[in-house]
Amino acid sequence: MPRIDFRAPSAELARALVGASLFVEGVGGRIVETEAYDESDPASHSFAGKTARNAVMFGPPGRAYVYRSYGIHWCLNFVCLAEGHGAGVLIRALEPTAGIERMRERRGLPDERLLCSGPGRLCQALGVTHAMNGLRLDRAPFRVVPRADDASIAVAAGTRIGISKSRDLAWRFALAGSRFLSKPLRLP
DNA sequence: TGTATGATCGCCT
DNA sequence: GGCGATCATACAG
Q1: Which of A1, A44, A78, A101 is a good FRET partner for A164, with 20 to 30 A between their CA atoms?
Q2: Which domains, from first to last, does chain A contain?
Q3: Is A43 helix (H, G, I), strand (E, B) or coil?
Q4: B strand bases under 7 Å from protein CB
């Protein structure tokens, strides 16, 4: 059932992506943490309208929106139902399954638990940069694999991280009990 | 386990 | 000028 539908509202897509797998040139793993953002949400980049930075969020769904965070890190979003509004899902953490040595080289830190536990770390480990902004997610270098139909997966919802607006919205989704989360889940 | 700080860039919502 | 959808490091206790 969880065929990934990039036209779904961001919270739905964010939930469906937990347990799916993401690879960039074969390096990646299982998504264990996501956050939803949309145009009605003051914490979203799309809230205040289209700019050069967030333009991809306003384009067709199923693309990568990569932005620079704090002037230093890259963060990866999956664009969903945009149609002039602007919505997306921030990929916050992966459980590494493929290309772990490559990740270690890129990260410089050996700790496997910290390779992809956070949106900036994950992009560094997978080699995601601004060069991939706007690229389709169903083509190389990306590969997104839905979780298996029979996968009995416990997805928990909590409040989002690192934002000051709309802090009570339970739009953070995580694989319950995973040790690869960027932070423990906080219930609303 | 927690709090503080620096790095450094795009946009000011 | 100030603030982020961050992270590594330094330090206190």
Answers
A1: A78
A2: 10-175 (3.10.300.10)
A3: coil
A4: 7-13
Q: Which residues touch strand C (CB under 7 A)?
A: A 35, 37, 43-46, 54, 57, 65, 67, 69-73, 75, 77, 88, 90, 107, 109, 114, 118-122, 160-165, 182
Distance A153 CA to B1 C1' (A): 30
Residue nearest to nucleotide B7 (CA to C1'): A72
| pLDDT tens-digit map of A70-96 | 999 999 999 998 777 899 999 999 999
Tens digit of each residue's pLDDT (9 = 90 or more) over A96-154: 999 999 999 999 999 999 999 999 999 999 999 999 999 999 999 999 999 987 677 89
pTM, rounded to two decimals: 0.95
